[in-house]
Amino acid sequence: MNEIGLPSDGARRDASDNKAQIARIMLLGHDLRAAVSDILGGLHLLADEDLSPGMRLQFERMRAAGEDMARLIEEGFEIVTDQAVGPLRQTVQLARLLYDLEMRWTGRAQEKGLGFHVAMAPDVPVLVRLDRIALERVLSNMLSNAVKYTDQGAVRLALTVEAETRLLFSVLDDGPGFDPDLRGRLFRQGARGEVPGKAGNGLGLFISRDMARRLEGRIEVSNRAEGGACVALSLPLAGLMPPEMAIDTPLPDLSRMRVLVAEDSALNQAVLGHMLSAMGAHCDSAADGVEALEMLDNGSYDLAVIDAEMPRLSGLDLIRTLRASGGRHSAIPVVVCTAYVLRANREAIVAAGADAIVSKPMTAIEPLAEAITQALERHDGEGHRPCPPIVDEAVFEALLGIAGAEAAQELLSRLISDLSRVERGLVAGLSAPNLAVVRSDSHVLLSVAGAVGAVRLQELAEELCAAARREDTVAMQLIGRAVLTQIDRLIAYAGRRQRQFEKVGA
């Protein structure tokens, strides 16, 4: 500073250099985010290929790790630039969090010949608001220690509610347990690395303790009576419930209905059971397609929620068998759950006889409620009935009339091409998430849907664009699924009209 209090030339140069450095860092951050977004989008699209179950698991493992990398990049640039690039407390979908952890750690456990199992109690809230990066660091360190120190058996992650006041993440393993002589030093750097034959720097529990404090929680360790260790992270539920928990639309009343859930994942069984119970349903669960078929043969059900991929008998084969049986459940309303959201998968599911589709992982109740409502509306007391039209027929026919018979096929081809391109963009954008891509593609969709009279799709595209503008990623996921379903229906409708023109031309 000089005599009149103005910055010196050196201070100005330093400030200018700092600004230039921050600008370069932020530009690097933009490029890194774009690269990670492309990787995640590509992985999501590759999952649509005809892959073996093992390869699908590896793709899901890479996707979950990529999303963690994206969040860590955000925190890294916040630290380096001393600027807040995102909210510290985020709305976390607990079922999605456990699904991602299951995908990441199943492969790691299998490499050691271990089992890895995830379970969530039915009374666990769907959404919480907390520091997700800190939570993932704690859980990853707890799981890393469990896998490292377990040579045979399994590692389990359980999420429960303790005394209705605390959220409890418990990692249980079949390892040797904690040495009583080391218990007092467990949370010091290097502690568990002192175990003979298990080299390491012992940072896991040391980091976990500090991250737990950042979450206003606590970590407790114990040895299990049946052998092995238990490390538990306990968080106070007070203050974790976000405003997104409020449900704006009424849920379907299933209070007099019995629902069969066919799902091989215990985690997804618990999530679906929790959501269906909230709608008033009584639920039974089957672990595979053969068991589900036996239960449908011997029981009485009003609705079936079926996973597309199951052992022994897949969900699609189960539906085909039901529809062809002519038995009492041949016309039962069926909702299919699938992790693969692109059109080719959905067309195969609909062709098998499903009434509605909902995407996995199940992270909120609204998409399931909407799918169930759609499935039930397609059935009256005497059986199947078609869904309401996807477009305003008068507007669509007027558009084809303006184009003329010769140009109508070209118009339909361009419509299908535009919708398919937007669909691919939205799948990648929602997966990352990439707000710019979602805004851009939903804006294009607004124009296309309006031109052909797809009123509901136009409304949803407008809602999705608004959610992306306000950076509401939770709303984006919920609305995005409905948008993708409507796009699929419009593509199928345009395809049918195209084939009609081809037959007339032939």
CATH class of the largest domain: Alpha Beta
Low-confidence stretches: 83-87, 192-203, 381-388
Please state the second-level CATH architecture of the largest domain. 2-Layer Sandwich
Terminal CA distance: 86 Å
Order of strands across the biggest sheet? 2-4-5-7-6
Major beta-sheet overview: 5 strands, mixed
Number of helices: 14
Question: What portion of residues belong to β-strands?
Answer: 5-15%
Helix content: 40-55%
Keywords: Kinase, Phosphoprotein, Transferase
InterPro entries: CheY-like_superfamily (IPR011006), HATPase_C_sf (IPR036890), HATPase_dom (IPR003594), His_kinase_dom (IPR005467), HPT_dom_sf (IPR036641), Sig_transdc_His_kin-like_C (IPR004358), Sig_transdc_resp-reg_receiver (IPR001789)
Protein name: histidine kinase
Catalytic activity: ATP + protein L-histidine = ADP + protein N-phospho-L-histidine
Question: How would you describe this structure to a colleague?
Answer:
The chain has helices at residues 9-46, 53-81, 94-111, 132-148, 203-214, 266-278, 289-298, 315-325, 343-352, 365-377, 393-431, 435-452, 455-469, 473-505, and strands spanning 90-93, 115-120, 127-130, 154-162, 166-173, 218-223, 229-236, 258-262, 282-286, 303-307, 334-338, 356-359, 379-380, 383-384. It folds into 4 domains: 1-86; 88-244, Heat Shock Protein 90 (2-Layer Sandwich), CATH 3.30.565.10; 247-384, Rossmann fold (3-Layer(aba) Sandwich); 393-505, Four Helix Bundle (Hemerythrin (Met), subunit A), CATH 1.20.120. It is globular, with a radius of gyration of 26 Å. It is built from 14 helices and 14 strands. The protein is of the alpha/beta class and 506 residues long. The strands form 4 sheets. The protein has a 5-stranded mixed beta sheet. Strands 9-8-10-11-12 form a 5-stranded parallel beta sheet, sandwiched between helices.
